[in-house]
């Protein structure tokens, strides 16, 4: 029998709570839902008003993994949705505006991915993002070196950067910017990625070409495009363990001497929130947004 619970006055059927989703650690679906419930205060502000793309893995990361943007079949009528313009035609997408919707979406077993713009102004970016992806044998250690260069370069333009783990092998850099077209933010991000490659040619590559990437950090600037999305802060990832895209301090980035130093799993996040609060809260403050040069 599927348990029924009530969240903010909404009735939710939460299924298969004992199902193991992360076999490497025995982490269950019930623990996934508990993680999102206890992390909601930090996570929800980063989801709110951003159309959600679902990367679903209902049988765990070793099962079927599929990406979806349209409103899933069976979505309750109380879930907020909005029509979003897309190249191939408009789509209706989910907005996670509250705890009830967060728990409904988490019950589908999904990574949360969102664009760099808000629903009220599609294609006008309010965030800048860099995805730093290491090509073996490079690791998160080299990503940290590149992140520090980008942080300092952004600061020269009056833009304050923040870091989080990708939840996989690399790092994400995020910055709040005054609303600017996604085309311009993409151009600017590419300029900085090219600049990083020129400054550190043995360490950085700005092109996606696989043959160029071994031993280097790929600075992926393309996720600033209006059609692209990035893993939302605090989302669980479809990896062998319940890793999290977790905000980190710049001191942690500076002190990173081994890849494992910047890898966090779900049970790590509550203590980090207690110690640090939401390290990415400044991204939500319009007064902290910098203008692109």
Automatic annotation (TrEMBL):
Gene3D superfamilies: DNA primase, PRIM domain. Pfam families: LigD_Prim-Pol. It comes from the Bacteria. Residues 28-279 form the DNA ligase D polymerase domain. InterPro entries: LigD_pol_dom, MtLigD_Pol-like, NHEJ_LigD. The keyword Ligase applies. GO terms for molecular function: ligase activity. Keywords: Ligase. PANTHER family: BIFUNCTIONAL NON-HOMOLOGOUS END JOINING PROTEIN LIGD. NCBIfam families: ligD_pol (TIGR02778). This is ATP-dependent DNA ligase.
């Amino acid at each position: 029998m599927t348990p029924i619970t009530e969240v903010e006055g909404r009735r939710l059927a939460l299924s298969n709570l004992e199902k193991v989703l992360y076999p490497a650690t025995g982490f269950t679906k019930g623990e996934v839902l508990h993680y999102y419930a206890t992390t909601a205060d930090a996570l929800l502000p980063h989801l709110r008003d951003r159309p959600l793309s679902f990367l679903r893995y209902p049988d765990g990361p070793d099962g079927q993994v599929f990406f979806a943007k349209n409103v899933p079949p069976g979505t309750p009528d109380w879930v907020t949705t909005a029509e979003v313009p897309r190249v191939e035609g408009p789509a209706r997408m989910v907005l996670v505006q509250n705890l009830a919707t967060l728990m409904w979406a988490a019950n589908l077993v999904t990574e949360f991915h969102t664009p760099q713009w808000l629903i009220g102004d599609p294609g006008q970016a309010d965030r800048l993002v860099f995805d730093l992806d290491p090509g073996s044998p490079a690791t998160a250690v080299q990503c940290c070196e590149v992140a520090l260069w980008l942080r300092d370069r952004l600061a020269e333009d009056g833009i304050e950067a923040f870091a989080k783990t990708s939840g996989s092998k690399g790092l994400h850099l995020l910055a709040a910017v005054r609303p600017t077209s996604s085309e311009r933010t993409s151009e600017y991000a590419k300029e900085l990625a090219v600049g990083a490659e020129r400054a550190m040619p043995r360490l950085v590559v700005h092109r996606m070409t696989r043959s160029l990437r071994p031993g280097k950090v790929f600075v992926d600037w393309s996720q600033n495009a209006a059609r692209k999305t990035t893993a939302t802060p605090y989302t669980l990832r479809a990896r062998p363990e319940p890793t999290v895209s977790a905000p980190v301090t710049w001191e942690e980035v500076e002190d990173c001497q081994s890849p494992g130093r910047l890898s966090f799993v779900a049970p790590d996040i509550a203590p980090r929130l207690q110690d640090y609060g939401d390290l990415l809260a400044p991204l939500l403050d319009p007064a902290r947004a910098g203008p692109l040069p």
